[in-house]
Amino acid sequence: MTKLSDFLNSAKGFPKDENDGISFAIISIRSMKIQTRAQAGTTLTESLCAALVVAVFFASMFELNAVCLKYIDSTKESVAALQAVQDRAETLRNLAFTDLTSTSYVQTLMAAAPNSSDYCGKATETVAIRAYPTANGTTQFTRASNGTVTTNTTATSLGSTLVQVDISTTWNMTLGGRPRSEQTSIIVSNGTKK
User: Fold this and answer.
1) For the chain, how long is the longest CA-to-CA vector?
2) How do 124-131 and 162-172 pair as beta strands?
3) Which of 131, 126, 82, 83 shows the shortest CA–CA distance to 107?
4) How many CB atoms neighbour CB 155 within 10 A?
5) Where do the DSSP E strands lie in the chain?
6) 3-state SS string over 65-89?
7) Partners of 184 in the beta sheet?
8) By the 8 A CB rule, do 164 and 130 touch?
9) Which neighbouring-strand residues pair with 165?
10) pTM of the model
11) Structural element, H or E, at residue 28
12) Which of 164, 167, 149, 173 is nearest to 79 (CA)?
């Protein structure tokens, strides 16, 4: 004990009191225990458990990110569908009344997509035109997702004053593949454009 206490007393910054130095040395020596056989493998087990917890955390984060991206795609589709319906409504509303009531003119017009978004390549668009307020049949056009336009029905007469135009678009949603649709109706009168 004398050599240890002499060493501690001579070192700079250590207490000069012999009892303080000895107690410090005993604490230091006791804290440096050799592990027993029962404790030897716990470090590997703890490391593997920690790695497993980290792996589960990152897998959960990646899955959450993927689901969020699907929700964002679904929202973009809904907004694009609404925009496509509104663009088609504006195109038809701005036509001359004689062009709007002409089956061949509207069918040719429907061959082009309502706008240039990628959504229009996935949706089926339907336009129905009928005389308003009393219908005498309905002229209905369907534009498939590949761009082909078919005339489903032709009205006997669309009248010469007012027509109701119903526009709808349908598609299968990215998230879950559920069928979705957006639609609007407008009434167009035969008048002069200013």
Assistant:
1) 120
2) antiparallel
3) 126
4) 19
5) 124-131, 138-143, 149-153, 162-172, 179-189
6) HHHHHHHHHHHHHHHHHHHHHHHHH
7) 167
8) yes
9) 129, 186
10) 0.66
11) helix 18-31
12) 173
**Residue 92 neighbours by CB distance under 10 Å:** 21
pLDDT in single tens digits along all 194 residues of the chain: 556 556 555 555 545 555 554 444 444 555 555 555 555 557 888 889 999 999 999 999 999 999 999 889 888 888 999 999 999 999 999 998 889 999 999 999 999 888 888 887 889 999 999 998 888 889 999 999 888 999 999 988 888 889 999 999 999 887 788 899 999 999 999 876 65
Residue 122 near residue 170, CB atoms below 8 Å = no
The count of residues in the chain is 194
Burial class (CB within 10 angstroms; exposed 0-12, middle 13-18, buried 19+) of 194: exposed
Place of tokens 């319906």: 85
Is 87:115 a contact under the CB 8 Å cutoff?
yes
